[in-house]
Design goal:
This protein is α+β, with helices and mostly antiparallel strands and 508 residues long. 34% of the residues lie in helices and 28% in strands. It folds into two domains: 153 residues, OB fold (Dihydrolipoamide Acetyltransferase, E2P), CATH 2.40.50; 263 residues, Bira Bifunctional Protein, Domain 2 (BirA Bifunctional Protein, domain 2, 2-Layer Sandwich). Helix 6 packs across helix 7, helix 7 crosses helix 9 and helix 11 packs parallel to helix 12. It is elongated, with a radius of gyration of 29 Å.
């Protein structure tokens, strides 16, 4: 179907045709820029502070964000990736014809290149006195706006974008007009950079493992399935890096990590997106206690590098990331918040009865481990505001973790919680191939085929384990959630550039 243009878009298209009729390319191939807005400000302020000549010539480029005409002068603001700066157009400098051309043919959202000298206005604002300009890109569609008005015969739009749904669907527009959103993604990049630095300095090797996998595993999640036509083979988008990274431990790579995308065919809410970024690392000769300490050090290093502080505010909670973090055994935490002693309920039936006695709804046929996981998620998790490691989990929901020597029904696993969010998950990893095979068989037998807790048998992984896997500790953390924490964003969609959304027609 042909595009249906709005009246404003039609006006801009007419300008586009006028430009072309005059031999002006509205999308020229070449552009010039000597300084960004912040670089221009820095050199000007340096000259001011040193008492040097401030008649500094620069060429700037950016998107026009405001235009204000005042007879024979026009003020405009342009914005680039670093910030904003004011442009000053005067008929005495560029000629009346050039000024009239700018006022008539340029619009908010257009990209412009401007040559000139820097100066300060009477109000102290750093400004470029324009001596020449050229159009770099014509914007046909005005940026989203809440209000527009006519000033001196020219339409002026006051831009903002507050509807979350539109912001996520049109992230390009969101980024264009909301500098605080751009800052979120700069912070996200800094988080990833700091994590890499920490791991690299601690002797870890960064690797890449397959995204398309013949057998999925390493987490409790439902996978996305695809099909390879030439191989005539079903493949799965990975739900975790774990089983491939631990194969590398067998190959004598003792410290290994990956930062990349995982895909889980699960529900979407404020902390879940079907496509997300995860860090996983595996450390030979470490157990879950050593990984706890390592995790604290890694998170505070990242906070130091990215934020320059270890106390942060998230959704009105002041959080102190300084180690040591609180350690809380899962059994004790559930007892504290529900009054249910899971250790006194050794079967699913007895635990279900104890939960029902407290008025807690129980899912029929749920295993004991899933009932405990529900108590953790629904009752304990929301209370864990300050950084806390919850440790010692049921064996039947942790098929890749090593059991406690004194209690085989409990595994050496912890999850880290901050601000009521699960931030990370870690184990003393199971390295006994016979025990691992029994766990795979158990998970296949005790869970329905469509149950996300089900783990398929991975024969190749077991083969790798039989060659000998060193004792090790493993760890996984969502980059998106850590970025949420560091940017005070309540929804994971705020920290993913292009989050998955329902089709608009489906939402109606």
């Amino acid at each position: 179907m042909p595009i249906e243009y709005t009246n404003l878009e039609k006006i801009r298209l007419e300008k586009l045709e006028r430009l072309r009729a005059q031999g002006i390319d509205p999308y020229p191939t070449r552009a010039q820029r000597t300084h960004t807005s912040s670089e221009a400000a820095q050199i000007f302020e340096k000259a001011e502070s040193e008492g040097a000549d401030t008649n500094i010539s620069v060429i700037l480029a950016g998107r026009i964000r405001s235009i204000r005409t005042m007879g024979k002068i026009t003020f405009a603001h342009i914005e680039d990736g670093d910030g904003k700066i004011q442009l000053f157009f005067r008929a005495n400098d560029i000629g009346e014809e050039a000024l009239a051309f700018f006022n008539k043919e340029f619009d908010l959202g257009d990209f412009i290149q401007a040559n000139g000298e820097l100066f300060r206005t009477k109000t102290g604002e750093l400004t470029l006195r324009v001596s020449a300009y050229r159009l770099l890109a014509k914007a046909i569609t005005p940026l989203p706006a809440d209000k527009e008005e006519e000033v001196d015969g020219k339409i002026v739009r006051h831009t903002s974008l507050s509807d979350p749904e539109m912001r996520y669907r049109q992230r390009y527009a969101d980024l264009a007009i909301n500098p605080q959103v751009r800052q979120i993604f700069r912070t996200r990049a800094a988080v990833v950079r700091a994590l890499r630095e920490f791991l690299d300095r601690n002797g870890f090797l960064e690797v890449e493992t397959p995204i398309l996998q013949p057998i999925y595993g390493g987490a409790a999640a439902r996978p996305f399935t695809t099909y390879h036509n030439q191989l005539k083979q079903n493949l799965f988008l990975r739900i975790s890096f774990e089983l491939y990274l631990k194969r590398l431990l067998v190959g004598n790579i003792e410290r290994v990590y990956e930062i990349g995308r995982d895909f889980r065919n699960e529900g979407v809410d404020r902390t879940h997106n079907p496509e997300f970024t995860q860090l996983e690392f595996y450390m030979a000769y470490a157990d879950y206690e050593k990984v706890m300490t390592f995790t604290e050090d890694m998170v505070v290093y990242t906070a130091d590098q990215v934020l320059g502080k270890r106390t942060i505010t998230y959704q009105n909670h002041e959080l102190n990331l300084q180690p040591p973090w609180r350690r809380l055994e899962l059994h004790q935490g559930i007892l504290d918040v529900t009054g249910i002693d899971i250790n006194a309920c050794p079967t699913a039936e007895s635990l279900a009865a104890a939960m029902q006695a407290k008025g807690i709804q129980v899912e029929p046929q749920a295993t004991r481990g899933k009932l405990i996981d529900g108590l953790l998620g629904d009752y304990l998790c929301p209370t864990l505001i300050q950084p806390t490691f919850v440790y010692n989990y049921p064996r039947d929901i942790s098929p890749l973790a090593k059991s406690k020597p004194e209690n085989p029904s409990i595994v050496e696993r912890f999850e880290g919680y901050i601000a009521g969010m699960e931030m990370c998950n870690a184990f003393t990893e199971l390295n006994d191939p016979q025990d691992q095979e029994a766990r795979f068989l158990e998970m296949g037998r005790d869970y329905d085929a469509d149950d996300e807790e089900r783990h398929p048998m991975d024969e190749d992984y077991l083969r790798a384990m039989r060659y000998g896997m060193p004792p090790n500790g493993g760890f996984g953390m969502g980059i998106d959630r850590l970025t949420m924490l560091f940017t005070n964003c309540p929804n994971i969609r705020e920290v993913i550039l292009f989050p998955h959304l329902r089709e608009q027609d489906a939402e109606a």
